[in-house]
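DATA SHEET
Item: assembly model
Revision: 1
Owner: S.N.
Input lines:
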Amino acid sequence: MPKFNENFFDLKESYLFSEIAHRVNAYSEKNPNKKIIRLGIGDVTLPLGSKVISQLHEGIDALASAETFKGYGPEQGYDFLRLAIVDYYSRNNISINPCEVFVSDGAKSDTGNITDIFGRDNIVLIPDPVYPVYVDTNIMSGRNIIYIDANEENNFLPMPDDNVHSDIIYICSPNNPTGATYNRDQLKNWIDYALENNAIILYDSAYECFITDETLPRSIYAIEGAKKCAIEFCSLSKTAGFTGVRCGYTIIPEDLTFLSSSGIKISVNAMWNRRQTTKFNGVSYIVQKGAAAVFSPEGMAQCKSNIKYYQENAKIILNGLLKKNISCFGGVNSPYIWFKCPNNMDSWDFFDYLLDNAQIVGTPGAGFGKNGQKFFRITSFGTRDSTIEAMKRIDELI
Amino acid sequence: MPKFNENFFDLKESYLFSEIAHRVNAYSEKNPNKKIIRLGIGDVTLPLGSKVISQLHEGIDALASAETFKGYGPEQGYDFLRLAIVDYYSRNNISINPCEVFVSDGAKSDTGNITDIFGRDNIVLIPDPVYPVYVDTNIMSGRNIIYIDANEENNFLPMPDDNVHSDIIYICSPNNPTGATYNRDQLKNWIDYALENNAIILYDSAYECFITDETLPRSIYAIEGAKKCAIEFCSLSKTAGFTGVRCGYTIIPEDLTFLSSSGIKISVNAMWNRRQTTKFNGVSYIVQKGAAAVFSPEGMAQCKSNIKYYQENAKIILNGLLKKNISCFGGVNSPYIWFKCPNNMDSWDFFDYLLDNAQIVGTPGAGFGKNGQKFFRITSFGTRDSTIEAMKRIDELI
């Protein structure tokens, strides 16, 4: 009989957001008249900007006549989009070659599928708490994970320990779920550590568009040495509200090479290219047309206006919690507000308490790792009205 | 340093279609005035039907206003599309549950990613010649592959050998590249073999819409016992011209379970669900709207009209080759015509000969396996004019 990948059986039974959905459904069945406010999953609510909308329509129009029809596109993405992304980086004074850009259907796919190019025998360093996909996909591959504590003491920004060796390092900045964002010096420390350990950094910058503090790096390539040790994953989900449209991109510098024990030079770019050409057939032409519009001056202005709306929500949430003397992280340079549960409550208990008494859905910190046990995440992606209403309810409850 | 997946180094250097592109580019640089006819890659040329176009536009319109906006969708696909696919199967008297349908961005992704759920220690049976993705993705996973010869003697429809055990069996019918299609009795033999060996069949039915002979099965589930041993992969690339739109689907019956050595019941559906929810975030809402339109009466009629056009191309190619007494396979119930290279030529030599002397690009059989060494594939996906012109040139040349 087929032998299955038994590493799957080491995964936790259910994904965090399924458990949340389960509890919310049970509550609303019992309480059909209560109005629930959902500030749990990091999903956007504002519609796409008009520039993106018009370019998506144009993409479809091209498929409606034989003269302009597009069939299979390049697995790595169309040049028009790769160049638009290169140009976006150049605005932050970062120089990327088009062949270093891989367009995909989202950062979740790429951060998951990247595990394909690595062997099983690696020491993987993952911060705790963090986006569960890094942990789950490495468990699926049977790899040895070392966790690094992110907690109140280090402002949820753990720094490398020179006494601990690792081969593959995950960094998410601005962080999901804590909203904590590394500054230049801190990232430089990580790069130095990676270069010293001959390790690779997998850098998730999905929330870079929420950075308002101009001294903070929006890309790891803003720091010297990064091209020799880091892959960067990014997404249009939060930048442009593409959670339902599906488009992301991954940057793999040509300089990112390693020398194997047998003296062969391994190009990470070439390995990912082989992975993608073999197991992926490119992103929908329609979606790529819309994605390119994001990086146009008009498209970007519309995206920024939406981001500003969410940032104002974040401020409302943050101020409301601070007023109650709750210890908060994120909320600035990040769409997430991460805070300590009142009265030393456990995060799932606080989840139930908030749902039962204020009909607000957030995300229990425990879902992101053991250091999240006493913490809670609220997102700024709701509507203004529901955000204000939620904070009013919290104000009355706590 | 990171340990890489060294199985990648066992892959052939370049993917078949890259080598073809390389040779064609070299030729056209030297001969800028020659008009090349491309009948190589299996990519469609006709525009999408108007019903699909209008539904794609509607999908975008929904994203333009907050009231109808769609963010993250279910990783498995929206119910409206899963139900449309269930209904499509029911028209062929096959009963599928919606939870057995997984919508994806294409069959290439799914046939590649399915390897994630299996352990390394499996004996994989793959016909030769065949679509290269099955072989390459299993090499990437370091698995032991047994090839089963498809050749003139068995009409390119190899049957199981009861003396050879295997755990995972790939079947592609109608076959890419040979166009050969299994009948019901033959498929029943494969299912009996799989059940006896406690093996799993990975059945690729991407070309099912080209079957005109009503006695031939369009799905493996048309045959008794299949739900206990087979996964089916299908795609809208050829059914609806979605090569650039990107949508496919995979059926994993709930009955497809295995008992592990330690007595645990393994549900293949649950394992794939875990893989997809962890490493995939669903298909673009826009694309799913267009895909659902494919299965509407009007949408399907438009798709069938396009398929008929390609089928007539296939007839033109087949008749032209038969006139020259060339031994042909496929071309009926398949968009591919697979034929023996004239004068006992090797397939890459014939590729160069046809390019140099008739400016026609086809696909050398050797690219699909050793049994393709003396064979050649031409597709019916060109325009009518270019198909007629190509056959005129072949008529003069051979």
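QC remark: The mean pLDDT of chain A is 96.
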